[in-house]
Request: fold
Amino acid sequence: MSATAEILSELEALRLIDPHTHINPHAAASDSLADILGYHYYTELAHSAGLPRDQIEEPGIDPKEKVARLVPWLATIENTTQYSWLLEMCRVFFDFEGSLINESNWEALYDSSRKLMQGQTWESTVLEKSGLDQVYLTNDFDDALTGFDTQLYVPCLRTDDLVFNLQNSEVRDRLATATGITAKDSGTLRQAVGALFDHFAANNARACAISLPPDFSPEYVSDSRADILLEKAAADQALDTSECRDLSCFVFLCLTEQCADREFPFDLMIGVNRNVYEDGVYQGQDLYDKRVSLIQYRQLFNAFPQVIFPISVLSETSGQELVSYAWIFPNVLPHGHWWYSNIPVFIEKDCRSRLQAVPRTKQIGYYSDMYKLEFALPKFAMYRRILARVLATDFVRDRGWTVVQAVELGRQILRGNVERVFGA
Amino acid sequence: MSATAEILSELEALRLIDPHTHINPHAAASDSLADILGYHYYTELAHSAGLPRDQIEEPGIDPKEKVARLVPWLATIENTTQYSWLLEMCRVFFDFEGSLINESNWEALYDSSRKLMQGQTWESTVLEKSGLDQVYLTNDFDDALTGFDTQLYVPCLRTDDLVFNLQNSEVRDRLATATGITAKDSGTLRQAVGALFDHFAANNARACAISLPPDFSPEYVSDSRADILLEKAAADQALDTSECRDLSCFVFLCLTEQCADREFPFDLMIGVNRNVYEDGVYQGQDLYDKRVSLIQYRQLFNAFPQVIFPISVLSETSGQELVSYAWIFPNVLPHGHWWYSNIPVFIEKDCRSRLQAVPRTKQIGYYSDMYKLEFALPKFAMYRRILARVLATDFVRDRGWTVVQAVELGRQILRGNVERVFGA
Amino acid sequence: MSATAEILSELEALRLIDPHTHINPHAAASDSLADILGYHYYTELAHSAGLPRDQIEEPGIDPKEKVARLVPWLATIENTTQYSWLLEMCRVFFDFEGSLINESNWEALYDSSRKLMQGQTWESTVLEKSGLDQVYLTNDFDDALTGFDTQLYVPCLRTDDLVFNLQNSEVRDRLATATGITAKDSGTLRQAVGALFDHFAANNARACAISLPPDFSPEYVSDSRADILLEKAAADQALDTSECRDLSCFVFLCLTEQCADREFPFDLMIGVNRNVYEDGVYQGQDLYDKRVSLIQYRQLFNAFPQVIFPISVLSETSGQELVSYAWIFPNVLPHGHWWYSNIPVFIEKDCRSRLQAVPRTKQIGYYSDMYKLEFALPKFAMYRRILARVLATDFVRDRGWTVVQAVELGRQILRGNVERVFGA
Reply:
């Protein structure tokens, strides 16, 4: 048995906490194959290969019909990593035994899997087969956080709307409704943000999170400047680009202050441009500009040494910066492998560089980013295979580590640090 | 026999279409070793290692003397991939049996190869040994396109001059001569560009192509703005930087409109700065600024969903952006491995990332970019070896694919998609 | 015996010249383990993992106490490459036989190693065990260069202060003191710089060196512009940002002119931002902005073809640019693997790309950048292992080279080119 296989076997026995997902805790598992194939990773690839968007997103389309339309396009994407996840889900969860899903076999698969998914215990079956102990969520700031087990589905406060859209009255109204506080100046905004953190902390939330465009740089904005901007917004006057940017910075500052007070890690997901492909499918419109640097966060990292920033970067060209910043800043932590960087070739490079240069206590190996519960299994499986090979190669082969030492490092990256950082 | 060897053996049996070259169809094959060693890949490396430019480019120098001057410098570049191409050409085409070409053996090689190259059938011998069915060209917009077999040597309309130099009267004169139309405003420019496409389409052209500097971003420019610029140019008034940029954008727009009308793919080769090394040898003066992003093409990709853009990027730091944009934009296709990225370490990374995340129907694996016909063989051989290893590793080993499946994917990348995209 | 092992064995037998270090020739070797663990690579990682800076940098702290404070944190960084250097030093120099250094064994190691380091011959023992023939230094411009063997410890003129801080009277005073010339205009500055080069050349100096921030671009500045700036500085008037930048460019120009006159290579270390992490430990505060391009040096490389520029880049995203610029510019040479890029995953990629595309005569494989003599051994050992594997894979396996040929290439990269470029 090779070192890789030995290590992998141990890592596969490990139970997991998934520290970042988009799971809806009221409907965590899939209802049918349409929920799985409806994931944007498949719809956007099928669309990219030629399937018109309106066929995928026809209003009121029947789930089975949706799958029927997507299946013929699977042949065009069977090379992709995303397809390999699909196959692994179907094999593990639905006892699918083929090597390809195509027009000849999809309907039987649809029907048999549907039957399983309709079972009362499907959600717990998926959790169990996936070895998941906890699943972190992504919650709108005005989410009630009721009706689910927050020990299993752990809330996280997602703050994109607050930071980038507070100039819109609709967002300010949602904030007022959620907190009972009208944010009309810097003081009341701080109160309102504090009320959000009260609510989230009371419901077992473990982190604050945000995704950020490549050109964002969180600079300090004074209360008096924020007063002017918030009063202008409250008076329904339009803010210009520079005013919007300052308001964003101020809201970001208030959130970071709360993270400091509450000892919440602040997950930064750096580098996404929204709606780049305007006619793309749902959630398949975002891209990036690789011309971004962590130097843009210099002021933030210095100003808030007490806040832990688990950081995800979208472009692989940011991978080394993340390693270097985590190498010297105590509060900067590399976090998972995000979206366009979540394929083996980039995971492998990032995994190696982090293991070679960042303290082992500071690395959070992986999160699934999933929308439906079935995806944790193949995504973590992919990561574990890469991690096992890197540990076998860079540590057992090249540095003379024992397999036991390597496994212990793997466990820490995959599970131990998640507990330590997010205080599970 | 390893999976890599099995796959490679199948890929080597495949006949090829080379979708981007600089072949002169009137003198496609080399006349002597001077044509091969005169390729800028060798002259620039020898110059970089110390051979003065004026010794390489002495006017009227005898071909054999040129080779005699270059040969002593080969020892300094025998580590390079480019040298490995030279050796492979000499072995396959000229029965060279040494492991190095040096002062002791070059002359015999020169003479014996010269004899072969002077044979009547040399061009077809090279095509046959290289397995080439078709070779795509790079034609100036005013190329007559006569005197060669356009089914074998397929014309492509190269448009750098039109887009970046139309402010020069010499280029406008060439356009007028080629089309009979004087481009003095937006309307007549459109007509002239249309006439070029008529001419190229009538001669079996398959694509429009252009290389672009890192700071170019094709923004929309109105007809009325273009009218002003073209009238100013026609009056021999100098255009300032901003006016030149707008004129470039407008010409680019006209070309893209024609590509839409004619269903021509528009090959974009993104990221080259011309004449960076001013005293460099011929064609050995260009470099790049890696600070470029495909976000600069956001407007274009959205505005022309019906135009296919096979895209080459010069910097390896653009590789992931190309994968990501091709992953969601139906009209963005990764195309080959260009110039400074055309060495194994970067090809391997790009090849892996494309195979892992871009629909298999959208990838055009390789083109030679050659100036003389002999180069297709070693360049494609290099690519096939890398492709075979990636298929064996990432697909057969890591994903359980059969060798037959892997070969089929390789064939599609290497040949099938070239036919599909360029409509050969 | 594998090709890798055969090649490695030959490379390990090679004696070395280390072309860039920060060794103090008056105290080259370590005095105790505190000198080794006090290296910023360990203090910054321990601090990043959680050890407060004031515990590391307490004024007047006893060396043994310092080590006692650092040791408990080694468990958090034992995965890092830096830790592997520590272990290798302890094994080779101090006969340490454990696999980890921890609370249970550090004190014995401290005491036994201390005894060795206090021996009269320790410095020569380290040089001998490390196979070091020469060690290049980094000397302040006003270093007396006396009291040590400049054949063994070769001076290099470090010029960051001159280029970036000449607007400060303290630096101008140091320059006046060192040279006897007050630089009050362009002419006297040239004389003063010339006097520095006289002094360094007379003391066997082999290079001029500088580290440069990502936003620096050495543009031409005229004497008359410099006159104004230097007169303003001499009058103790503050220079604004643009004036400081021009003054930096002018000093840089004067240095380059001297390099041309003296045939000194000019080591450029491109891309560091100083003091990014303001509360970081000593020498653990610097980071970078990856948005830098060698195109910023276009004017310089063209203007000084007679000056050799060995170039180090801090960001791995600059690696390919360095290869490409060295591929066509005769005066651009890739130099070692610097700082945040000095870990195996990035060394391997850079090593492969340079060997595949830069003339073999132009590559300087490695320097240690060390502050204490013991570090050359594990750092060069790390590099040699990577080099041996790359040679075995890319050359012996993929290109059919013999082991002898591969070893010869390795020797040239590691030693031959250092002698050739720096004229040792």
Remarks:
- Chain A has a mean pLDDT of 97.
